[in-house]
């Protein structure tokens, strides 16, 4: 057979296979995506930019900082706890200094991994080891899509973002607020967003833990959604919340009391210093890592003083600023190295690791994509267990973007496919299939191919693999334009997960009472 004839045969077989695939899937059968995985694991060894000696040097410098320089803790509750544990507390300045032996004793009490079990136990996620969990964007004050433009965060858009997170299996948890619903009262919106999270999803999500009151309110709502009491839930953590250290070297009162409340309830806390090199730390990466490490350990110690063994995550958010403007930069080489090194430090203390997939672009464009890929890949290869902002982050965290959620889901699914181990069974090695085809032939129509063609390769939800002519006939849409079409389809196909009506009634009764209390000025 000539090469031309073989090419014609291959093209015909390819078209027939594609036609058969479309027929098997059926018209209008819905968006195809990767299935929910009980655990996503990283099969590769972690990348380690630091040698063992360098990790030790950062560790020792961090303990020196905690022991000789200290970190400020605001609020009597936190200061009392540090003092009771044996730390040197200066009440006038709020400065806390901790002996290195005390630090290591407390950090050693934290678990190396734990499971978060939301209201749907089938959506439980493992946090620790080589497990990977990707989260929706969290915390922006604004939202954007290509149809409605940029606007202030609002509750209607909040619901849409929550539905995106529920719809896509690769998104395994939600942030504390996918976007700030600025059209709701600031003192009670945490309950409205928590209610939306338990109604429109059955996945784990981060809680608002700015202060003990918000932390407890959110946990009360989740306990009711799970049909449990707070006491029962303490033995099966369902809630997790992130606190930020106000770098440099300040743990404010609201963050401290939020962490204390979560630990008291047996729920998980992430301690994440906000360390931007050049602004919140010195410009050198080594100094940034020392400060990140000391601040993270400081907050982790607080959770273990409250409740030894309380689940806690080592958080890293070290990147750099643009030295010309002072604006935060993400997805930079320095950010990527910090993601990897942060994982080394977390493993040094045998703790789960939180990191992020961020970018600083002002549009859903190539910059947004390559910066996100830099941060995401380094987060994965740094063994990030809890990867924040993995879908939808834009403008350095000022915007939650619908189109960016769709593009990021495609990237995340690509990465999960990349992490899938290669099978080498005799059937997969396929010597019989190789022998079946004559030299110069093709494999389109043989049994080995026909048995596997629907599942052999990763099927994209957004990539367009047609040739240029067919792409132009279909409207010549780029990936961002296709993402606009996709998020609208997601909202059409979204199905709300069932929730026991009696549990929802209990949630609504609790929220109504708490709003009444807040309205009268009660805590």
UniProtKB/TrEMBL annotation:
Its EC top class is: transferase
- Give the region (Disordered) as residue ranges: 1-29
Q: Which domain of life is it from?
A: Bacteria
Write down the Pfam families for this protein, in alphabetical order: MTTB
Keywords, A to Z? Methyltransferase, Transferase
A GO molecular function assigned to this protein is:
methyltransferase activity
Q: Does the keyword Methyltransferase apply?
A: yes
Q: Which InterPro entries match?
A: MttB-like_sf (IPR038601), MTTB_MeTrfase (IPR010426)
The EC number(s) attached to this protein equal 2.1.1.-
Listed Gene3D superfamilies = Trimethylamine methyltransferase-like
Q: What is this protein called?
A: Methyltransferase
Q: Which organism is it from?
A: Pacificispira spongiicola
């Amino acid at each position: 057979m000539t090469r031309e004839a073989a090419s014609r045969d291959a093209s015909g077989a390819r078209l027939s296979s594609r036609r058969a695939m479309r027929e098997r899937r059926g018209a209008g059968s819905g968006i195809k995506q990767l299935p929910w995985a009980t655990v996503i694991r990283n099969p590769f060894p972690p990348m380690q930019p630091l040698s063992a000696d360098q990790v030790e040097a950062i560790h020792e410098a961090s303990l020196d900082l905690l022991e000789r320089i200290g970190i400020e803790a605001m609020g009597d509750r936190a200061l009392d706890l540090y003092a009771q544990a044996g730390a040197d507390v200066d009440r006038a300045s709020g400065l806390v200094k901790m002996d290195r032996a005390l630090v290591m004793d407390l950090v050693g009490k934290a678990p190396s991994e734990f499971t978060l079990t939301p209201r749907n136990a089938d959506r439980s996620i493992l946090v620790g080891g080589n497990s990977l969990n990707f989260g929706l964007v969290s915390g922006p004050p604004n939202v954007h899509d290509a149809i409605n433009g940029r606007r202030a965060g609002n509750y209607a858009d909040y619901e849409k973002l929550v539905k995106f997170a529920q719809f896509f299996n690769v998104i395994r948890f939600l942030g504390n607020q996918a976007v700030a619903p600025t059209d709701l009262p600031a003192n009670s919106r945490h309950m409205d967003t928590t209610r939306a999270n338990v109604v429109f999803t059955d996945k784990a999500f981060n809680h608002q833990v700015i202060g003990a009151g918000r932390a407890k309110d959110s946990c009360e709502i989740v306990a009711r959604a799970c049909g449990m009491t707070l006491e029962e839930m303490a033995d099966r953590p369902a809630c997790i919340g992130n606190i930020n250290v106000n770098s440099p070297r300040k743990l404010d009162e609201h963050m401290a009391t939020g962490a204390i409340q979560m630990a008291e309830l047996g729920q998980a806390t992430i301690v994440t210093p906000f360390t931007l090199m050049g602004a919140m730390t010195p410009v050198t990466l080594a100094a940034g890592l020392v400060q990140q490490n000391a601040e993270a350990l400081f907050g982790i110690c607080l959770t273990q003083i409250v409740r030894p063994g309380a689940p806690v995550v080592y958080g890293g958010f070290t990147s750099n600023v643009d030295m010309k403007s002072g604006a935060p930069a993400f997805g930079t080489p320095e950010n990527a190295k910090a993601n990897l090194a942060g994982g080394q430090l977390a493993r040094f203390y045998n703790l789960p690791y939180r990191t992020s997939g961020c970018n600083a672009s002002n549009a859903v464009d190539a910059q947004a994509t390559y910066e996100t890929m830099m941060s995401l890949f380094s987060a994965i290869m740094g063994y990030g267990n809890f990867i924040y902002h993995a879908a939808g982050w834009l403008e350095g965290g000022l915007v939650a973007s619908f189109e960016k959620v769709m593009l990021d889901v495609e990237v995340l699914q690509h990465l999960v496919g990349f992490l899938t181990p290669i099978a080498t069974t005799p059937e997969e090695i396929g010597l019989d299939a190789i022998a079946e085809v004559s030299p110069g032939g093709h494999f389109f129509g043989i049994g080995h191919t026909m048995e596997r063609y629907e599942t052999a390769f990763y099927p994209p939800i957004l990539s367009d693999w047609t040739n240029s002519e067919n792409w132009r006939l279909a409207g010549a849409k780029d990936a961002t334009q296709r993402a606009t079409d996709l998020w609208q389809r997601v909202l059409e196909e979204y199905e709300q997960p069932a929730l026991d009506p009696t549990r929802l009634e209990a949630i609504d009764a609790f929220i109504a009472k708490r709003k009444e209390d807040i309205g009268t000025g009660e805590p």
